[in-house]
Specification:
about 230 residues, mainly alpha, 10 helices, about 80% helix
Length: about 230
């Protein structure tokens, strides 16, 4: 276990591509925390306080829990259902486009929360969770494929970095988000997602340069575009 952690850290601190993928993984970790801590906690449906009867409080809590389960199921279902369409799009249009779409999905979640008050936002949560599910689908499939392509010689360290980076983001959000205003959460998520797309494109440029310098390496590139 210690060896895996050390190899992951070595890759992170010695490989620019791995470091450039940090914002992408942070964006997913922040998005998951944003959905859990803010959307599910404050927007999905209000839970009555002590100024209501026990029955009313119990009723509101039950409705809240049911809606959280429903919306969470939507996100998971969309993430599963969209994995194949995004894989097809990646084969036809290239990985960079799909990764940018993933970043846009998380920006959309932050933007909808910024533009709408809790009441109006509550009416389109189905859309927010669908778009979040698309972003999650891309992170769970395409992003992991990117790491496999970027680091074919160190797959264990590469995948350990995915867990390390996204887990660190979730941990940071767990402690920091409760003390942040909704606007601060939205800006954090949106800015991290945008930075993730930019840094991914930079990592792709580095990877493309490395491949051009070693043309004999025949594995599939993250830069593969439309088939002809």
């Amino acid at each position: 276990m210690t060896k895996k952690v050390l190899s992951a850290l070595e890759l992170l601190f010695t490989n620019a591509k791995c470091a450039l993928m940090i914002p992408t993984n942070f964006a997913f970790g922040f998005a998951a925390a944003f959905i859990t801590a803010y959307i599910q906690g404050s927007v999905v449906s209000p839970v009555y306080g002590d100024d209501h009867t026990d029955d009313e409080i119990s009723d509101s809590q039950s409705q809240h829990d049911s809606r959280v389960l429903l919306y969470s199921s939507i996100a998971v279902g969309v993430a599963t259902a969209m994995s194949m369409p995004f894989f097809y799009l990646k084969k036809k249009a290239g990985t960079p486009l799909v990764m940018v779409i993933g970043a846009v999905c998380f920006v959309f979640v932050a933007l909808m929360s910024f533009l709408l008050e809790d009441g109006p936002l509550r009416h389109i949560l189905w859309l927010v969770y669908i778009v979040y599910g698309c972003g999650r689908s891309i992170w769970e499939s395409t992003t992991k494929a990117v790491f496999a392509d970027f680091f074919p010689d160190t797959p264990q360290a590469a995948f350990a970095n995915i867990v390390l980076q996204s887990g660190l983001a979730s941990t940071i959000a767990f402690f920091v988000f409760p003390d942040m205003s909704p606007l601060q959460k939205e800006v954090t998520l949106g800015a991290t997602a945008i930075l993730g797309a930019i840094c991914f494109l930079a990592a792709t440029a580095i990877h493309k340069k490395e491949q051009s310098e070693e043309p004999e390496e025949g594995y599939m590139s993250v830069n593969d575009g439309p088939e002809v």
